[in-house]
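Please check these two lines:
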Amino acid sequence: HLLSDYRPSVEVAADSLVVAAKESPDTLGAWPQVLTGDVQTMRVGGSHYSILQGSSSRKIAGGIRMFSGV
Protein backbone atom coordinates (compact mmCIF):
# COMPACT_ATOMS: atom_id res chain seq x y z
CA HIS A 1 0.00 0.00 0.00
CA LEU A 2 1.05 3.60 -0.49
CA LEU A 3 1.70 4.38 3.15
CA SER A 4 4.49 1.82 3.36
CA ASP A 5 6.51 3.90 0.87
CA TYR A 6 5.52 7.32 2.20
CA ARG A 7 8.12 9.40 4.00
CA PRO A 8 7.36 13.05 4.74
CA SER A 9 9.98 15.53 3.57
CA VAL A 10 10.02 17.06 7.06
CA GLU A 11 9.51 15.44 10.43
CA VAL A 12 5.91 15.62 11.56
CA ALA A 13 6.32 16.20 15.29
CA ALA A 14 2.79 16.52 16.57
CA ASP A 15 0.31 14.53 18.58
CA SER A 16 -2.08 12.93 16.10
CA LEU A 17 -5.38 11.12 15.93
CA VAL A 18 -5.49 8.84 12.88
CA VAL A 19 -8.97 7.70 11.85
CA ALA A 20 -9.55 4.78 9.48
CA ALA A 21 -12.61 3.22 7.92
CA LYS A 22 -13.28 -0.42 8.81
CA GLU A 23 -13.99 -1.18 5.13
CA SER A 24 -10.58 0.17 4.03
CA PRO A 25 -7.21 -1.58 4.26
CA ASP A 26 -5.81 -1.47 7.79
CA THR A 27 -2.86 0.95 7.72
CA LEU A 28 -3.18 2.18 11.31
CA GLY A 29 -0.03 0.38 12.43
CA ALA A 30 2.07 2.21 9.84
CA TRP A 31 1.32 5.76 11.01
CA PRO A 32 3.57 5.77 14.10
CA GLN A 33 6.46 5.14 11.70
CA VAL A 34 5.92 8.48 9.93
CA LEU A 35 4.58 10.58 12.82
CA THR A 36 6.32 11.47 16.05
CA GLY A 37 4.51 12.44 19.20
CA ASP A 38 1.49 10.70 20.68
CA VAL A 39 -0.29 8.81 17.88
CA GLN A 40 -3.77 7.60 18.76
CA THR A 41 -5.83 5.55 16.32
CA MET A 42 -9.48 4.72 15.87
CA ARG A 43 -11.48 2.71 13.34
CA VAL A 44 -15.06 3.56 12.49
CA GLY A 45 -17.66 1.73 10.45
CA GLY A 46 -17.98 2.52 6.78
CA SER A 47 -15.81 3.19 3.78
CA HIS A 48 -13.13 5.79 3.17
CA TYR A 49 -15.83 8.10 1.78
CA SER A 50 -18.81 7.31 4.02
CA ILE A 51 -17.13 7.78 7.41
CA LEU A 52 -17.75 11.52 7.26
CA GLN A 53 -21.51 10.97 7.18
CA GLY A 54 -24.09 9.90 9.72
CA SER A 55 -23.15 8.09 12.92
CA SER A 56 -19.51 7.61 11.88
CA SER A 57 -18.99 11.37 11.73
CA ARG A 58 -20.38 11.69 15.26
CA LYS A 59 -17.98 8.98 16.46
CA ILE A 60 -15.07 10.79 14.82
CA ALA A 61 -16.13 14.07 16.44
CA GLY A 62 -16.24 12.33 19.81
CA GLY A 63 -12.79 10.88 19.21
CA ILE A 64 -11.43 14.34 18.38
CA ARG A 65 -13.00 15.78 21.54
CA MET A 66 -11.47 13.03 23.70
CA PHE A 67 -8.06 13.31 21.99
CA SER A 68 -7.95 17.10 22.31
CA GLY A 69 -9.24 17.12 25.87
CA VAL A 70 -12.20 19.35 25.04
Observations:
- The longest helix spans residues 54-68.
